[in-house]
Amino acid sequence: MGDVEDELRDYKIIKEGEAEILMHSSNTVFFNKAQVYNRDMSIAVLRTYIAKCKEEHDAYLSKKGRLENKVPEEKNSGSVAKNDSITQDAEANGDTDVQQDQSLDETESISEGFIRMPSWKGSQELKAPRVLEALAASGLRALRYAREVDGIGQVIALDNDKASIEACKRNIKFNGSVACSKVEAHLADARVYMLTHQKEFDVVDLDPYGSPSVFLDSAVQSVADGGILMCTATDMAVLCGNNGEVCHSKYGSYPLKGKYCHEMALRILLACIESHANRYKRHIVPILSVYMDFYVRVFVRIYTSASAIKETPLKLSYVYQCVGCDSFHLQSVGRTINKDKSVKSAPGYGPVVPQECSDCGKKFNMGGPIWSAPMHDKEWIFSILANVKAMKERYPAYEKISAVLTTISEELHDIPLFVSLHNLCSTLKCTSPSAVLFRSAVLNAGYRISGSHVNPLGLKTDAPMDVIWDIMRCWVVKNHPIKAQQPDKSGTVILSKEPKLQANFARAAASLSKAKVKKEVRYLPNPERHWGPKVRAGRQITSKHCSLLGPDVVSGSLDQEADGSSEAVADKLAEGPATKRQKTVDVSASQS
User: Fold this and answer.
1) Between 140-148 and 162-174, two packed helices, what is the crossing angle to 10 degrees?
2) How far is 265 from 252, CA to CA, in rounded Å?
3) Whole-prediction pTM value?
4) d(CA 312, CA 289)
5) Which residues in 427-451 are b (16+ Cβ under 10 Å) and which e?
6) What is the pLDDT of residues 508-524, one digit of tens each?
7) What is the mean pLDDT of residues 227-248?
8) DSSP 3-state assignment of 16?
């Protein structure tokens, strides 16, 4: 018993959900408590995915059964006399069994012609989904999948760091027989492993420290048809425009600095995954895309279809953003032409904007391409949210993920990007109207509007920018006049124009979201200070990490290092001169 206590003396037990892991006091294996949101959301999606697979498989078997029953009936009703004569001849010749086998083969071939389903749905029995966690670290995510998700199959945990795999295997044993029977840990390069296991996993989870770009090409090949790719990106400085050239080299898109930059980061990541999938005649269908804390995470289903990838240019757009007033406009990469009862693809028309902004007269920056199609599946969102609410005691971060999902469920899913009410008022140097009044004005003008889960002040709307500025002109000129500004300022140019639309600020019935009416919480503060990214595993914690970890953690780590160094010095002094002579011999030997 004493040996076990001594062995575990430097470890602490961390419990999350139903899984427990042993974490060493040193920073040799990465763990971030803030990622509990990420793991809870992934579990919710995985549970919904298993339920959806059962529904799809049952529907497939039902349809197949109906077609198999329908084909023999039509065949028999149309050729009763012929079948009777053939049967009589066969009986006379003693070939009745052969004739029955031929008719069964014909029925099967006809039914297969009517039904074309993905290969993973073709079997009579639905297999438990196989999951690959490509970057496992401590293995906490894989252990939670195995212990908490009913109906899950084998979970493979990979890492190319030996210390991480040792910790992962230790944690698998620590979590008992269920974990040992379902979770396997392997020391391997995730890229090579996924390339050598193509279309073998129903779920592939990528959660790297930084950018996932180097893993995407192999990841889209390892997901089975209809399977899910879960992907996280934490390099938000790159994706949000601080290093645009780096983003273009990693993701193939140029970001723009704007209030919508975090949603643009999501759409850049989706466009990048789609680009990698298209190279192998595959395409993605986003089911959930979220921005939380300091990262973006997307959940997409991947299918193989050479015809479907022709529609990819219709789902991508370039973004033009004015440098003066931040007005933005989207230009689709492609379009379709209906010709001779067929649909053909063609390049998109452009440019959609003049050389100078029609609102303020300034130039445009161009970014993209980004994913401009819906980045959520509304049916999936409601299913995931229902699952979370039904099993809220099993989600440690229930309040956060339910709030995010509630906000996403109320978004306009077909509207890319959003405007910021405070940013509009900053351009005009005016007092801001309340969100209810602005929403009412947009609704009364005949357009749609909703909030955004990315930004509490973000408003997604299908109203064009000239309508938005007309509403703001009416707000300023009629109700809230401002002091005279310099004539070359964007706000001055915008307010100098007469509004073509007379805004109606009368409160509209739909100006408040359903969650707001029910007083449901949608945006939660961080549960504690220094809730965010942590130091990469293996790096020494220094005083410059105070903003990430907090002064208490940093001082404690530095104290431990000081104690360790003082103990090492004391050991060397206790060894006496022999140690110094040995060191001299070693140095001279190494020099020789």
Assistant:
1) 30
2) 12
3) 0.83
4) 18
5) bbebebbebebbbbbbbbbeeebbb
6) 988 887 777 777 777 77
7) 95
8) strand
